[in-house]
Structure formats: structure tokens, C-alpha cells
Amino acid sequence: MTFKNVSQAELYQLAKDAYLLVKQIRPDAKTVGPSIVSFKPKVLNALIDQMARDGIRFDAISWHELGKDPDVIGQHVATMRAFFKEHPGICQPSCPEIHINEYHGEDTMFIPGHAVGWLSNLESSNVDQANKACWGGDVGSPISYQSCWYGFSGLLVPNKLTPQPLYWVYKFYAEMNASRFAAKSTPKADSMTSFNAAPANSVLSLQFDRFPAGDAFWVVVTPK
Question: If one looks up domain 1-133 in CATH, what number appears?
Fold first, then answer.
């Protein structure tokens, strides 16, 4: 939300004009914003305060989470929901959804355990939508290729066929389609657990143990 020689007030006016134009042409169109590069509480609070004053409501408030610590998601989402309570006008007829445009930082992108941490925190925070970040190919990047265009955002190697270790986290997560229940571990671990009543009557658990390297990844399938 920073442009050279453009103030926050001018940026808001631009967003307001665009919103009103879109609604004039398509009243049922969904609007999402501001899609800023990181969670900036002062910017976001000022934005929804002004929107509530002007009777403007986005269908979703969005930002990026591109750091190394997945635990911050819960703090940021709680802060945003507190802002909604401060400005109830933004919640008419219902509060905006919360979208994370992209999550997972570049330095830990290929570490499976970190992916579990991100997924666990996104779920426990009840984020409505989130998209995995893709990185690489830039000068100084630790990733030699552009994962946005090759390898399905890091799930596959650049040949687009061979799975990376990261692939298995998302595969197992996608298979957690049965009953879900909360799972607690040590203070330095995140976990997600799903119970499948059939055909195997098994429990599938993903766990992220934060050892000094922060990269342990466990998959446990336990018969009932």
C-alpha cells in the first residue's frame, strides 16, 4: 500500500472509486482487498474504519504471510477480528472473510515440517481461504528455478513429474477428509489429526516438531 508520492488517503480514494464503479456495473460482484504484502495492523485498521464510515464492505480482507513463523497467523487473524468488532459497520450483513493471498516464506519453502505448521495454524485460525506461495529464480534466491511456473509451486521438481518431499504433506492433508478433532502436542509442535471411519478405521496425524533445525515431519497412521 505504498507508492512513491501517493498518500494513504489517495490510495483509499482510488480503492473507493474502483469499488463503486465495479458495484455500479455488477452489483453482485465480490470484492477482496487490500492484498498487502504483509500484515500491517495500522494500515488495515485505518482501512476498515474508513470503509465502515463510507458504507463500503469488501467480501474479504486479505494480506500475505511470507515470514518464517507460522504461529503469527493466529495472532494476526485474532487482531483482524478484533478490528471487525471495533468497526461493526464493516460486518453488515456479515463480517468479511479472511483470505491469506500467499503464505510460507522463501527460506523454508521446501521444509515439509514447516508446511504442516502453516496448514495447522491456518486451520486453527479459521482462515477462509489461503494460497501457498511460490518462489525462486530471482537473483540471490536460494531456489534456483521459478517454482511459480515449474514444479507446481514446489510440490514437484522442475520436470513437473517427480514429487518433492513437500508433496507428501499436501497429499496427506488432502486425504484428511473425514472427521477432524483437535490434537495437542508439546509447546514446540503443531499437529493435525483426522479420523477415518472406513475403510481402515484409522487415525491420520501430521505433526511438525520444532527442533533447533525446525524441520522434523511425522506422519502417523494408527488403527482404531
Answer: 3.20.20.80
